[in-house]
Design a protein that fits this description.
homodimer, Rossmann fold, 3 domains, 6-stranded parallel sheet, 6-stranded mixed sheet, 13 helices, 47% helix, DNA-binding
DNA sequence: TGCGATGATTGGATCGTTCAAGTTGTGTGA
DNA sequence: TCACACAACTTGAACGATCCAATCATCGCA
């Protein structure tokens, strides 16, 4: 469509120079009000939009964030990323940024693409998800001074960077309290094998709420429905078996749900995925839109202010359904 | 990190002019082999990556596709987009394109942002998902000559554009045949209210396989688990009730599954979402990675060759689980 | 030997924007 | 009256690439 509307077209129409138009857009206080209005009108009438690529060539800033899109990992939980991405796109757009996707098979491959992405696209920042123990990505970026935010705490890492996370322990604690409130006294926990930071955190929320005397009411297994079911059966077959289960994920909860059908044992899952809705599972919900917005807030702090903002820890909420 | 490696740095290192370096990258056949190798070595040694923004300013092409990211709509099915996005990002990267996200509340809002996106970012193409009857988006883009591909047929639209879709009717037909094969004779269908093109298509696959005499073995309802359960109960309470159900979505299938528990009635869902995995539902799976790759193929046809490629209709597969 | 064709390489102009350094005009204070 | 500060605006250069036309060799052929 011969998009010939450049800053010069606008300048001619408003009878000013290129630079004045540029000033109206970027540093309006330098321009007299009357002139500013005239330029604004010309922009409006011509439907002018600043060419981001040209701006980027000159300034070296792309107004672009990069986010890795994961292949579906374990099925159920990838839905979390989907909602986070949507929130991030909206939040970014509202402050003039855009979101670009990249794919990588694993962390090593991801680090290998950083250099390419940065050199070719002048990315302003990265948003990392799923941080974990010994994450090589954060140190690579930090060493090179590349701005980034993580959705997930810097588990065990000494160096600190801006991050947003949801308090998983608080989530499982709330789930446990809910079960206590509705009369359960022996509450078990179904989680992932120790060593996974997120999983350990979720277990800790349960453990601190029930107290140390119930430590043996927990089982660990891979994040899989069938394994969850088996572990739940095992846990329910012991003497003084629990009458309620808190689970580290909706996958495990779905398994537990199958194992407890008809027994009246209560089950609570984590992440409030569609599976929870379908099964009628009470589940801990992460405020993903809010998390995305906060990531963007932190990033604007880093990018515009040059400050290192304080991390943000958000509280999850419990979505109550029939299962507990 | 003063990323000062530009085309000139490379040129100096290889003792050639800027233009020769550019030629090595874009039109290598114009450069003598010996020179080409020398330049390639210099590029390698310096870790040079062409600056996309600068290229874009000159050529007007951004090597960027835009895809809308949806808020979670009805819960279960949004997972489809997630996997499609991943496939598209990978396919795009392999041919030098990147994927940018944008959000829009509805089709009108989406059309309103097109002009902005195009002018500001020189997008090369759009990938649209969820096409439907009377889609205003395709006509807007087609009128202005903006390249695009849809994942979804141009339902009922006269004008034709490149598209990729999965044969929903073939999917429900395969599901129906599967049920016939394992001995069922009265097979019902649970779908969405007529008027939704995708839904009508899925119904047609069932209808043509069972034959017209079974037309009253179908029920329509919103895409919701509870409504699906109610509709299934209704269908199963009639005289000569069906012994198996084909459903237009996993949401409906999840409802049907709840309604039929313990009755031995078989159920097949659609989209092979995690819910199907959890419930053990047999479900029709769309080849999303393949679909994304084909979208990219069509786009390169449009963008590089200027041709209007033939549409692609992919076949879904049936993932067999315990429910049928 | 001279000339045109072809292949390989080069230098200037350009894309649309912002930065940096100018130019103009007006008002203030000594 | 003159110097000076300051606000408002303009002009030239630059960002890093590609397009285009020009140059320089090389070679075959009359």
């Amino acid at each position: 469509m011969a998009d010939n509307v450049t800053i010069i077209t606008v300048a001619r129409r408003a009878q000013v120079s290129r630079q004045t138009v540029s000033n109206v857009l970027n540093t309006p206080h330098l321009v007299r009000e009357e002139t500013r209005e005239r330029v604004r009108r010309a922009i409006e009438e011509l439907g002018y939009r600043a060419n981001q690529a040209a701006r980027q060539v000159r300034t070296g800033r792309s107004q672009t964030l990069a986010v890795r899109i994961e292949p579906t990992r374990d099925g159920i939980n990838s839905l979390v990323l989907d909602r986070f991405l949507h929130g991030l796109t909206v939040a970014a757009a509202s402050v003039g940024y855009r979101v670009m996707l990249y794919a990588a098979a694993d962390d090593d491959a991801e680090v290998a693409t950083y250099a390419d992405l940065l050199a070719a696209y002048d990315l302003d920042a990265f948003v990392l998800t799923d941080t974990h123990h010994g994450d090589i990505r954060t140190s690579w970026l930090a060493e090179r001074g590349v701005p980034f935010v993580t959705f997930g705490r810097p588990w065990g890492a000494p160096e600190s960077h801006p991050w947003v996370d949801v308090d998983g322990a608080a989530g499982t604690a709330a789930a446990t309290r809910r079960l206590l409130d509705i009369g359960h006294e022996r509450i078990g926990f179904l989680g992932w094998p120790p060593g996974n930071a997120v999983g350990d955190d979720r277990r800790a929320g349960w453990a601190s709420t029930v107290g140390p005397e119930f430590a043996d009411l927990s089982r660990f297994t891979a994040d899989d429905v069938a394994e969850g079911e088996a572990a739940a059966r095992d846990l329910l077959s012991i003497p003084d078996a629990p009458t309620a289960l808190v689970c580290a994920s909706d996958s495990l909860a779905a398994g537990a749900f199958a194992a407890t059908r008809g027994t009246g044992v209560a089950v609570i899952g984590f992440d409030d995925t569609p599976v929870a809705g379908v099964l009628g599972l009470t589940s801990v919900a992460q405020p993903l839109t809010e998390a995305a917005a906060r990531c963007m807030d932190l990033l604007t702090g880093v990018l515009d202010g040059g400050i290192t903002p304080e991390p943000v820890l958000l509280q999850p909420t419990l979505v109550i359904r029939e299962s507990a």
